[in-house]
Amino acid sequence: MKKIFAFILAGVFLLSACEGGMAEGVEAHDYWARSGMMGGNSAAYMMLHNHGDEADAVVSASSDIADAVELHLSQMSADGVMQMIQQEKLDLPAGGELELKPGSYHVMLIGLKKDLKAGDEITLTLHFQNSEDVTLTIPVMDAENMGGEMNMGEDHGSMNMDGMKTPTP
After folding, report:
1. Beta-strand (E) ranges in the chain?
2. Residues 75-100: what's their mean pLDDT?
3. CA separation (Å) from 103 to 22, 77, 159?
């Protein structure tokens, strides 16, 4: 009986030691990517939560699904034109959250290598300044079915893309 008690007690100590380690790093949830056509663009959205005690930042992202993957911010200019501005990094405060959503911060997938249809999945890796990389398997959804979310579709003609790098074929 003493051996069983000692085993249970050791297990409790191990679990409490693991709990502190699980609280570190960045967690991504509620992620999805916009459908799109081969050669066009898409975007990935998500909620990021920094469980660490120090600030962090997404410094880049990568995926085999597109020619280029960039961090962007969409915002309305003073003259009412939606602009897409490439970001060097996306800051994530200690213990804080950052929402990547249509009309705001997002991961831009430029030059899709194949069609992305609702129900497909893509692999996307986020690279952080301090935390380890996070690789996600992201479901693709039709933007029209996202209930009131901004539909950027395939036509970015009314957007000012000054400063955006476009891959050359």
Report:
1. 26-34, 41-50, 56-62, 66-76, 82-86, 90-92, 97-100, 105-112, 121-128, 134-141
2. 95
3. 32, 12, 12
Residue owning tokens 């880049």: 60
- Nearest alpha carbon to residue 28 among 104, 127, 103: 127
pTM assigned to the model:
0.73
What domains can you pick out in the chain, each with its CATH number? 24-145 (2.60.40.1890)
Q: What is the mean pLDDT of the chain?
A: 81
pLDDT digits (tens, 9 = 90+) for 41-80: 999 999 999 999 999 999 999 999 999 999 999 999 899 9
Contacts of 55 (CB under 8 A, 6+ apart): 91, 92, 93, 94, 130
